[in-house]
Amino acid sequence: MIGRLFLRDLALLMPGGKRGGSILPLLFFLAVAMLYPFAVGPDAQLLARTGGGVIWVAALLAAILPLDRLVAPDLEQGVFDQLALRGISEELALAVRMAAHWLSFAPLLLLAAIPAAALLSLDGETLRKVLLGLLAGTPGLAAIGVMIAALTAGLRGGAALSGLLLIPLAVPILIFGAGSLSRPDGAGIALAAAISLVLVAMTPFAAGAAIRAAREG
Amino acid sequence: MHGFANPKRFLEIARWLTPTLLISGLIITAAALGWGYFRVPPDRLMGETVRILFLHVPSAWLGMGGWTAIAISSLVFLVWRHPLASLAARGAAVPGLVFTVICLATGSIWGRPTWGTWWVWDGRLTSMLVLMFLYIGYIALAQAVSRDGGSSRIPAIFGLVGAVNIPIINRSVVWWQSLHQPPSITMGKSAIDNEFLIPLLIAVLGFSLLFGGVVLARMRALLAEIQTEARLRRRALGAEVA
């Protein structure tokens, strides 16, 4: 049952799925990476020095886009009520959703980071650090995304509200993830991974409580 | 504690406690700031600029204290479902935001002459800025919830999640030391001379009383709003029956 739930969520969220919007955030991510050289000029040295951070900011902005389709349609259609009748708690359903959400955007984001790195003239070493950092940080981003999506599921606040809630919570991942670019050791990546683990552990409970609260009104 | 959960009893106490806190807070704050601005001698290193301390430090403590209050009230609301705890959390958000903004603004004004810069991306400044955005997010979420008729447990969950930031701000000057000085006042000992410390502590007391008064006033206003809505609904239903 859990496996089938996971496959259903994955099929919904993947590009080409029913809610298959996850290709659009990736295109948006590339568009932001393209905007930056337009804004500061094509100086390769400047781009190489700051480009890693730009990739992180673009990834964070791209993580805001899918939030309104992540949980709200299921809440409206009563999917969580049906699952609860089957004996699957909201916590479990949302942990599955979190895993599916990560799998639907993180690997593609890592792939998209490679052309973005070329646009920003990053060298191989920086690209390696960016990819490792994103690998450590994206589970945390996916966790915050599911948490915020569950909190705002019944509200008409839209993307502006979700973004306002997501950004302050995502700041620690950004600081440590992007901070690892200027350090020779892997401490920043390890700290980003640690924050990701905390968020992944916290999200099913916070998001599950939010869904139950939305049901009971 | 459950005795105070009764809104009627709460209103009876809050009716006299709100003006008491607000007036005594105003008098004590004015006295402490007057003392700090006119009676305390200028600092040996920082000169006259040290006087901003009496505004900066109490608002920093209350900016963090405000979110601590939100987190504790949210926990009480989620666990015991006290309706008043949810109102207390919502009441603490706006004064908490105001004190955080005062802390950032005075810190920036103080930083210009002493550090030579308005802003520096140091651990404490950054985490205070993040706290400001958390307050704004919380207030926006609470407003969206009351507008769309969502559950008041939703902002409470966000209040608890956001509390993760508080220990980070508190320890930030110890973990990442740059321009902001490490804490001068810790449990039981102080690196500040008594001449500065005593008016500072009085200012903290005055600001805290003001904070409490504003929270109580906000809670009374929210309760009155709920009562008015319930009364209007009852009247509308009664009109339909008649």
From TrEMBL, chain A:
InterPro entries (UniProt xref): Cyt_c_biogenesis_CcmB (IPR003544), Cyt_c_CcmB_bac (IPR026031)
Listed transmembrane segments: 20-39, 46-65, 99-120, 132-153, 159-177, 189-211
Bilayer topology: Multi-pass membrane protein
Assigned keywords, A-Z: Cell inner membrane, Cell membrane, Cytochrome c-type biogenesis, Membrane, Transmembrane, Transmembrane helix, Transport
One Gene Ontology CC term in the entry: plasma membrane
One GO BP: cytochrome c biosynthetic process
UniProt keyword Transport present: yes
Location in or out of the cell: Cell inner membrane
GO molecular function: heme transmembrane transporter activity
PANTHER family associated with the record: CYTOCHROME C BIOGENESIS B-RELATED, HEME EXPORTER PROTEIN B
Function text: Required for the export of heme to the periplasm for the biogenesis of c-type cytochromes.
Annotated family: Belongs to the CcmB/CycW/HelB family.
Name of the protein described by the UniProt record: Heme exporter protein B
UniProt source species: Allopontixanthobacter sediminis
Automatic annotation (TrEMBL), chain B:
Domain Cytochrome c assembly protein positions: 16-180
A molecular-function term among this protein's GO annotations: heme binding
Leader sequence segment: none
Any one annotated GO CC term: plasma membrane
Membrane-spanning parts: 21-40, 60-80, 92-111, 123-142, 154-176, 196-217
A Gene Ontology BP annotation from the UniProt entry: cytochrome complex assembly
Bilayer topology term: Multi-pass membrane protein
Protein origin, superkingdom: Bacteria
Pfam families: Cytochrom_C_asm (PF01578)
Keywords linked to the UniProt accession: Cell inner membrane, Cell membrane, Cytochrome c-type biogenesis, Membrane, Transmembrane, Transmembrane helix, Transport
The keyword Membrane is annotated on this UniProt entry: yes
Transmembrane helix listed as a keyword: yes
Residue ranges of coiled coil: none
Compartment annotation: Cell inner membrane; Membrane
Family affiliation: Belongs to the CcmC/CycZ/HelC family.
Known role: Required for the export of heme to the periplasm for the biogenesis of c-type cytochromes.
Protein name, UniProt field: Heme exporter protein C
Lineage per the UniProt record: Bacteria, Pseudomonadati, Pseudomonadota, Alphaproteobacteria, Sphingomonadales
